[in-house]
Design goal:
It is globular, with a radius of gyration of 15 Å. The chain is built from one helix and five strands; from the N terminus they run αβββββ. It has 124 residues and is an alpha+beta fold.
């Protein structure tokens, strides 16, 4: 069951009627997005599906608007360049749904929300 995440505003997620909004880069907004993505991966409304090699598709529903999203993810990390204590990379996840959102111009897609999330790196 999807958790109702309201840590920054009173906007309940997911809501297909949310207007396009490119949020301010605040610690609160970034935390809300990370928490929403983590919850979606946990409840399997978003999944990383291996497509071959180090490439995956992130598919499922945007935590904010609930519409279908899909983006390719390539984890191409040179382990020798990572500090020994680093075991996470950052990956940008942004809603890229094709559904209409009030206030969105023709140059953009999705509901506007997105941000970086930590991704565990497994060294082979």
């Amino acid at each position: 069951m999807r958790r109702d995440i309201r840590s920054v505003s009173d906007e309940a997620w997911p809501d297909p009627a949310v207007p396009y909004d490119y949020p301010a880069r605040t610690a609160g907004n970034e935390a809300r997005w990370r928490e929403a993505i983590a919850a979606a991966l946990e409840d399997k409304t978003l999944e990383l599906v291996a497509t071959g090699g180090d490439t995956y598709d992130l598919t499922g529903r945007c935590p904010r608007c609930g519409h279908e999203i899909c983006q390719s993810v390539e984890f191409d990390v040179i382990a020798s360049m990572l500090p020994l204590e680093s075991r996470f990379g950052m990956f940008g996840v942004r809603c890229n749904c094709v559904a209409a959102h009030a206030g969105r111009d023709g140059d953009h897609q999705g509901c506007g929300w997105g941000g970086s999330i930590p991704v565990p790196l497994y060294i082979r």
